[in-house]
Write a structure and sequence with these properties.
The complex is a heterodimer of chains A (303) and B (249). By secondary structure, chain A is mainly α. Chain A has 10 helices and 1 strand, in the order H-H-H-H-H-H-H-E-H-H-H. Helices cover 64% and strands 2% of the residues of chain A. The model of chain A has no long low-confidence stretch (mean pLDDT 91). Classes of the chains: A mainly alpha (303), B alpha+beta (249). At the A-B interface, helix 3, helix 7, strand 1 and helix 8 of A face strand 3, strand 4, strand 5, helix 3 and strand 8 of B. Strand 1 of chain A pairs antiparallel with strand 4 of chain B, so a sheet runs across the interface.
Amino acid sequence: MHPAPSVIVFTVLSGLGFGFLTFLGLGLPDVHGVEAFFYFAVAFALAVGGLVASTFHLGNPQRALKAFTQWRSSWLSREAWLSTAALIILAIYAAAAVFIGISVFPLGLLGAILSVATVVATSMIYAQLKTVPRWNHWLTPAHMLTVSLAGGAILAQQTAAALVLLLLAGGFQILHWVLGDRRFAERGHTIETATGLGDRGSARLFEPPHTGSNYLLKEMVHVVGRKHVQKLRIIAFAGMIVVPLAIVALLPVNPFTAILATLIYLVGAFASRWLFFAEAEHVVSLYYGATGSKPPYQPSFSG
Amino acid sequence: MTQLPAATDKKLGLVIDLDTCVGCHACVTACKGWNTENYGAPLSDTDAYGGDPVGTFLNRIHSYEVEPKGGGCSQTVHFPKSCLHCEDAPCVTVCPTGASYKRTEDGIVLVNEDACIGCGLCAWACPYGAREMDAVAGVMKKCTLCVDRIYNENLPEEDRVPACVRTCPAGARHFGDFADPDSNVSKLVAERGGMDLMPEQGTKPVNKYLPPRPKDQLPDMDVLTPLLEPVAEEPKGFLAWLDKRLEAL
């Protein structure tokens, strides 16, 4: 698919922000006063900045409030509720820590649970889509949640938690790639099932419906950067997992090493999330002639 | 609401006859015309007269070539594709705003454009590519089954069918109620083995496709070939002499 920058920025930054907020809510570290102000400012900037970026890909962002109405069926609506609830609860917790110097543990715990739930809801927006077999698996929430909590643990300078979560995130990332590569074929979606013409023989696209492009081709059938996949996977894995793991394990724990590790983690996480979208194969590509080896139709000319 | 109705009173939809469709794109043009001039945001085009024209369409005709299993002549199948108004429509339940809904009375899947934020998730949830975001209006567009024609008492009765059905010169498109076993569409599906697209996605499409009939097999009727065997491979006599002389020149 077409990896929209706003969605990549949103999922990575707010994922990191909510991961960090989870640890702050649990009192890890239990900060007060001016120190708490800086910790919460960074966490809120990441979480809210990501959420604001997510509205950039909307066709009519002025109606975004309507997205709160369908929480009974829609993961996107649930994400709106959970993120708002997490931010409000933790804003109260943060205000108490900064101005009064107390940590209201039940409030922090609730905020931490809501932060985790927000990341899960975000990942479920993708994991629920049967049309993208690579995403339609429990590994998608496991991958996104461990990546986000690992980043949060690095920023919160929780060495033990960061080591465990980075190892888990690395494991889920590899599984998501390796098993994801096979998922489309395993599901058995082919041009024959898509067109229903399978019982008479093998089908191939003779003519696309149009000479130019369309929304579907640009949004879901876009084939981009697939030849650099292996290089990008190495960059993503080294940046998101290996280098931060080395920094956390070997360098002394302080805010500077935490920020250094987080910046390298972000480079890797952006590469990983770019791949998450760029590698997604939507079943609609079958109608445009995609097969296991052959890419779908793409218009060759450009004005 | 983005929860699906447990059941709908009617199941209005289309039967598309892949045996009859000639791939003329008349339904595409009729659809674009009606749905640009009537209900909702117009179906916009960008760079319509330039080198890279792109537009919103609710109906598109793909063409496939099918190579028969036992060998022989391949068959060209023109394949119109629009919203299938699925019973278990995944595009409806993912909608965060309630803009996308399935009607209880007739099963038509519609978008309330005033509530659509243009997030595009419904188009992602659709396996069939039936929804397209309009680049100008920023709202999701899809087949309405010409809801503003089929109940429209200002139109003559023969026009109260979707524009694509009304215009099809080949009679390849049929409109009716699939909940009624005696309707024209239910009978066609029963007679001709109407099929679902991508049934493994579990969407339970209402629209059905009639498979193309197998091509006639030509029996071995080649009675003239034996009579057309070349009579003389090499020239003889005078012609052979002439041939030699001409070669020598």
